[in-house]
Amino acid sequence: MAAPGIVVMGGAGRMGRMLCDLVAASDAVRLVGVTVAPGHPWAHRDLGEVRGGTPDGVPVTDDPIEVVAQAQAVIDFTTPAATIAMSELTAQARAVHVIGTTGLTPEDLGALDRAARHATIIRAGNMSLGVNLLVQLVREVAGALGPDYDIEIVEAHHRHKVDAPSGTALMLGEAAAEGRGVTLDSVADRGRDGITGARREGAIGFHAIRGGDIVGEHDVLFAAEGEQVTLRHRATDRSVFARGALRAALWGQGKGPGSYDMLDVLGLR
């Protein structure tokens, strides 16, 4: 049986290039196509050639229809609009859609749920295996410590990140809220400035730091009278996200339609 064919979306970006290298180096999958934004100078050329090497037979296109039909999985770290458009194509092609895109709105998530009726969608705000173990720990600790412990989530990323809180911070907030049996929307506090008054009981606070080339750091602080517990994850190389996404693409082969996340991939559900 041939190795699954993978399409990498946004192959000209930092994460896209890393994914292309990882997939091309793997014996378990094949790189069958790369997409770029409409009008990008790489479009309709050979990937090896545009990256300064010899032609490798991998087409680069700004029309995803050209390559999705050849794929068993699409790995997507792009923009909400591009992700939603791709989800319609992967649903038609019955291809696994691995989504690391952040900044998705409730309307976007509804569109993905509709696509998941026909295709396997694996979505996570962070594809790192370590972060997803942290999510599980946060859920358990929040449930065990109870409401006497205030929860604050602090995240740090590079200066170019455009959304806040990060998708990972929101994953951690959702896990903490689930551990307490509440919804995140009802307890989230996304920033304080000026005379804010005392901290709202039961709130889950979010704080975003942006600077330099920070890959990604996330702290979850549980603070009570007399003690504090901090759970931390620090990524020092973006390859951890690419490796997690590739693992998800392989795990999704043969799965039925539906919405999954990295906890499913890791067998932690």
Automatic annotation (TrEMBL):
**What residues form the membrane-spanning segments?**
none
Which Pfam families does the record match to this protein? DapB_C (PF05173), DapB_N (PF01113)
* Active-site residues, Swiss-Prot/TrEMBL: H157, K161
Q: Where does (S)-2,3,4,5-tetrahydrodipicolinate bind?
A: H158, G167, T168
Cellular component per GO?
Answer: cytosol
Q: Which residues bind NADP(+)?
A: R51
Q: In which pathway does it act?
A: Amino-acid biosynthesis; L-lysine biosynthesis via DAP pathway; (S)-tetrahydrodipicolinate from L-aspartate: step 4/4
- According to its UniProt record, which protein family does this protein belong to? Belongs to the DapB family.
Q: What is this protein called?
A: 4-hydroxy-tetrahydrodipicolinate reductase
Source gene?
A: dapB
